[in-house]
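4.2 Preliminary Data

To establish feasibility before requesting continued support, the project team ran the inverse folding procedure on a target of 184 residues. The structure was first converted into the token representation described in Section 3, and no sequence information of any kind was made available to the design step. The complete token record follows.
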């Protein structure tokens, strides 16, 4: 069997793709994710103090410390995080995003889903893959802006707070988001 340049390129590309698919949960993965979640929550509470009140009212929080998105026509994004109930990690999750349209660039950000009702948290945990839909209220605060939980908690069962944005991604796209439990 001869090894051609095309086969070598394909093999190296497939190896890189498979290595990127590792979910990080294993020997040291959970500890690393938990440490990143703790740091992300510390930053969130420091930058936006009103989110502490939101956290105390929530029945659970899904914390995604770092989500990376890139796009050139078609785009995608990925991140890993933990679901916390009562301050303790109960599960690990990944988020995958796909988008299509006129777009270019890359960005990174953190986000936290606050589950404001027991029903919303239960639905999230029971589903094999949770797609964020119309029942999610998004809050994207700017630096120094206050985030009031009183007006949104009665209206939305899930509140997503997106913060710590870096990078530049521009365009008009249609996007889909899916959260999936990572099994250790």
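Position-by-position output of the design step:
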């Amino acid at each position: 069997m001869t090894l051609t340049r095309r086969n070598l390129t394909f093999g190296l590309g497939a190896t890189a793709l498979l290595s990127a698919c590792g979910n990080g949960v294993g020997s040291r993965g959970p500890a690393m994710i938990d440490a990143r979640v703790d740091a992300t929550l510390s930053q969130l509470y420091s930058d936006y103090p009103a989110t502490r009140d939101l956290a105390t009212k929530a029945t659970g929080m899904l914390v995604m410390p770092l989500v990376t998105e890139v796009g050139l026509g078609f785009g995608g994004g990925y991140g890993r995080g933990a679901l916390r109930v009562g301050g303790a990690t109960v599960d690990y999750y990944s988020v995958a995003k796909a988008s299509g349209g006129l777009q270019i660039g890359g960005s990174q950000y953190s986000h936290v889903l606050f589950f404001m009702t027991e029903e919303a948290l239960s639905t999230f945990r029971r589903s094999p893959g949770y797609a964020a839909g119309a029942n999610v209220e998004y809050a994207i605060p700017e630096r120094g802006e206050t985030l009031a939980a009183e007006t949104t908690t009665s209206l939305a069962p899930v509140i997503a707070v997106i913060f710590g944005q870096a990078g530049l991604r521009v365009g008009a796209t249609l996007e889909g988001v899916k959260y999936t439990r990572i099994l250790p």
